[in-house]
Amino acid sequence: MDLYEHQARQLFEEFGIPVPRAEVTDSPREARGIARRLGGRVVVKAQVRTGGRGKAGGVRLAEDPAAAERTARQILGTDINGHPVRTVMLAQPADIESEFYVSYVLDRAAGQFLAIASAEGGTEIEEVAATRPESVARVPVDPVEGVTSAKANEIVRAAGLPPRTADILMRLWQVLTREDALLVEVNPLVRTVQGHLLALDGKVTLDDNARFRQTRWGEQDERHDDPLEAAAAAKGLNYVKLDGEVGVIGNGAGLVMSTLDVVAGCGARPANFLDIGGGASARVMSDGLSVVLSDPDVKSVLVNVFGGITACDAVADGIVRALDAVRPTKPLVVRLDGNNAVRGRAVLDDRAHPLVRQATTMDDAARLAARLADAG
Ligand code: GDP
Ligand code: MN
Q1: For ligand 1, what atom is nearest to the CA of residue 56?
Q2: What is the rounded CA–CA span in Å between residue 188 and residue 122?
Q3: Cα-to-centroid distance, 92 and ligand 1 (Å)
Q4: Distance separating alpha carbons of residues 367 and 244, to the nearest angstrom
Q5: Is the CB of 98 inside a 6 Å radius of any atom of ligand 1?
Q6: Where residue 334 sits, what CATH number does that domain have?
Q7: Is the same domain home to 81 and 107?
Q8: Does 1 reside within a domain?
Q9: Are residues 84 and 129 in the same domain?
Q10: Among residues 120, 179, 185, 245, which one is catalytic?
Q11: Strands 112-118, 96-107: parallel, antiparallel or unpaired by DSSP?
């Protein structure tokens, strides 16, 4: 789960990392009052969990409280790279002398963390990394040893950062470990004209596996920007909206991922990822079908189930009950294989639903679903 910038800022502040004074609001009127409290001149920043806000017009300087209100009104309710802006953060502006980049990311392949740092931070960091990779230092961090003072100084030297950033690097490591984050990033970390270091923008990605003990960010971040994803999340489904026309339902994340590939291989585009899991009960199946079918982009649906512990006849029962509950208006292709597949197929044959066709292999099923989507 990604945190919003203002939440990352709050964590940084708690761990003693210097940040600008700032407040969050969803109201332009309130933005004026906040700007007044912060000294008049403020930076108005769209709170969206995506990068590149500055370039997309989501970070703007306002000279006085009236301008802050106007700017907040302009940004609120718009869309930054597909993310609706529901709140803005108003921050005291910094007089920037230099911008740096620092982050820790989990390096799964190496079984450790990686500190990535550069003396050339800011909105062009991707460009810097692509064209001058030698300007971006990558220093492995042992997860048990962590960022000691020696390690922090190693990162500082490798990236050519000001020596005083070592203290911030150690505190940032505390944010990562104590908050169970997979990524913490400060871009830019700035040195101001007055000589102060400030974390001007932050990104924190929390490890969802640790949510049982990291409850503070709670429900507010369950919000999904896509309405179908929100509906699916409310039903406890593992659903991700994609932009194609073949709805995909399967049991097991690996099978669903492969199904997306096979659909793409047939020249069609998957409309979604939906993993109904091992149980695949009638309820889950009808919840899943109703979400997928309510997507106006969907032209056909491919149900791809491999019976392992779950028997295919139980899944077929689920599909039959789902068909009665959901009443589909688009063609469905069902492929059942594995445990009790023959019985499962017989259940669907008996039901003889006019919109349901069966296929025995994943390739055949995907081809048929792609063809039906093309015709629909
Ligand atoms: P991002 O585009 O989503 O990464 O948003 P940032 O908060 O990182 O802002 C983008 C850029 O705007 C920064 O790299 C700075 O160059 C500039 N910026 C942000 N805040 C300030 C500020 O307080 N003062 C000044 N002078 N520039 C700022
Ligand atoms: Mn940034």
Answers
A1: 2
A2: 5
A3: 12
A4: 15
A5: no
A6: 3.40.50.261
A7: no
A8: no
A9: no
A10: 185
A11: antiparallel
Query: What is the reported pTM?
Result: 0.73
CA 134: distance to chain centroid? 29
Residue 190 lies in a domain: yes
Residue where one domain finishes, among candidates 71, 91, 111 = 91
Nearest ligand, CA 192: 1
Alpha-carbon span 169 to 166, nearest angstrom: 5
Question: Do 200 and 300 share a domain, yes or no?
Answer: no
Q: Quick check: is 8 in a domain?
A: no
Tell how far the Cα of 164 is from the centroid of ligand 2, in angstroms.
21
251 and 348 housed in the same domain: yes
Residues 191 and 293 in one domain: no
pLDDT in tens, the chain (376 residues): 899 999 999 999 999 999 999 999 999 999 999 999 999 999 999 999 988 999 999 999 999 999 999 999 999 999 998 889 999 999 999 999 999 999 999 999 999 999 999 999 999 999 999 999 999 999 999 999 999 999 999 999 999 999 999 999 999 999 999 999 999 999 999 999 999 999 999 999 999 899 889 888 875 555 566 788 888 988 889 999 999 999 999 999 999 999 999 999 999 999 999 998 876 677 888 899 999 999 999 999 999 999 888 889 988 988 898 888 888 999 999 999 999 999 999 999 999 999 999 999 999 999 999 999 998 7
Domains of the chain: total:
3
**Run of H or E residues at 153:** helix 149-159
In degrees, to the nearest 5, what angle opens at C-alpha 304 toward C-alphas 300 and 306? Answer: 170
HSE of 344, CA atoms in CB hemisphere, 13 A? 25
C-alpha closest to that of 201 among 72, 93, 113: 93
Q: Is 256 close to ligand 1, i.e. is its CB under 6 Å away?
A: no
User: Which of 75, 91, 107 lies at the terminal end of a domain, its last residue?
Assistant: 91
Structural domain containing residue 103: 96-213
Residue ID of nearest Cα to ligand 1 atom 25: 94
Provide the CATH number for the domain around residue 117.
3.30.470.20
